[in-house]
Amino acid sequence: MNSSNSLDLSTQTPKTKTLLNSAVNNTSILSRKGFLDRLFTSWFDRLVYPQIWEDPEVDIQALQIDKQSRIFTISSGGCNALNYLTEQPEHIEVVDLNEAHIALIKLKLTAIEHMPNAEAFFDFFGKANLQKNMDRYEAYIKPHLDRKTLEYWESKERPWSKKRITYFTNGFYKHGLLGHFIGLIHWTGKRLGYDISKMMQASNLEQQQQLFDENVAPIFDTKLLKFLSNRAMVMYSLGIPPSQFDELHKQSEDEQKGMHNLLKERARQLACDFSLDENYFAWQAFKREYDIKHRKAIPRYLKQGVFDVLKDNQQIVNVSHSSMTERLKALPANSLNAYLFLDAQDWMDENQLTELWQEVNRTAMPDARVVFRTAGEISPLEEKLPQSILNEWQTDVQSNQAWTKKDRSGIYGGVHLYIHKNHHAESANHVDNK
Question: CA of 40: how far to CAs of 142, 236, 284, 303, in Å?
Fold first, then answer.
């Protein structure tokens, strides 16, 4: 990675815990939410997402990402920014509160710049389970990492653990909070008499539905899963903070169904609504790896023929260990036209949302678009943003429902697209049904 794009996190940014405290802990510790928020903050201060769980194909289409795009996105597992990079946009601004996620995207960017070829890159981040990945790390990546990123990957999660970089020799995507949680679901399912990995035996959508009903759905109906589904702390490993849990719980009550049934429906969309041939989210959930044989069910940044595009364009990615609002404050007015907020707004109260969108309005170009996810079905903006800010944007509920149904990960209640009202292009809310 070019030194101009490397940020020395030890001197220029607050630590992860400080940023998380500021972002999440917006109520008194004496309240139930305040106590659970602080518990979540402590739990979230580590690698959470080895892979992002928002569908980049939906993002690219909804935001109309192309060579004129100037993108602002949360990093998470870092793969979303690299997926957008395949469209060769003008600029990508990446932020994250979590230094583990910052270290991950910097590792990927450094590998793109210095790995000798596409196959070596795929071995490292596609297969992510080869001993020779350590040799390539030592030869091509390690010498070019900034000090803070190097420190992260050379250190250990626990005193008795191996270095974090060794995750790429034994299945990187099985690590992190989410990776461990998925592993626990597999283990628990087997203890209950079900094998959810049998989902991968399906060869068509009809068989997917049948295998889901036989091997996955019954787990959600067990007493254990019914109990766990109603415990906010259990959801921390999915990266779900108390505020999101409350939204899910409210939706389950409004629809007069238990939390276990709501979660079952989300799992059904992931497992049954899209062909397994290309749904790499289902592969990670049910087989815990990518389709490394046929290389169809893999993120687009790992597909054949795109490595050179990544290498030629990686310098346009700028990475900051920062909150969204603070980073936006440092950027020029009218400098961005595509914003990806993932599900971060679910964490925010009215004041935080207002401060964020004041900066969105300031930095947005006339044709700007914003995409975000929510745990529940309803956008928080309509109730929490001042009308003076909201008046700058338009959205369409039916189109948002269509975007939600197209998202292959299936874990969110809503995918929302907001478009700047100065947009002069063709129909603002067009959803391609290809």
Answer: 32, 6, 24, 35
C-alpha span between 143 and 428 (Å, rounded): 46
How many distinct structural domains can be found in the chain?
1
The residue ranges of DSSP E strands in 295-420, in sequence order, are 317-321, 336-340, 364-374, 393-394, 414-420
What are the residue ranges of helices labelled H in 13-98?
16-24, 32-44, 56-62, 79-85
Residue 128, in any domain of the structure: no
pLDDT above 60 (res 324): yes
Collapsing DSSP states into helix, strand and coil, what is residue 340? strand
**Is 346 a member of any domain?**
yes
Q: What is the CATH number of the domain that holds 368?
A: 3.40.50.150
What's the angle, vertex CA 44, arms to CA 42 and CA 48, rounded to 5? 155
Over residues 158-167, the mean pLDDT reads: 92
Mention every residue, 6+ apart, whose C-beta is less than 8 A from residue 16.
45, 97, 98, 99, 100, 321
pLDDT in tens, 93-129: 999 988 999 999 999 999 999 999 999 999 999 999 9
CA distance 338 to 322: 18
Angstrom CA distances, 222 to 79, 259, 260, stand at 35, 12, 9
Distance CA 275, CA 204 (A): 7
Give the DSSP letter string of 266-321: HHHHHHHSS-TTT-HHHHHHHTSS--TTT--SS-GGGSTT-HHHHHHHGGGEEEEE
Give residue 82's domain range.
3-112+305-420
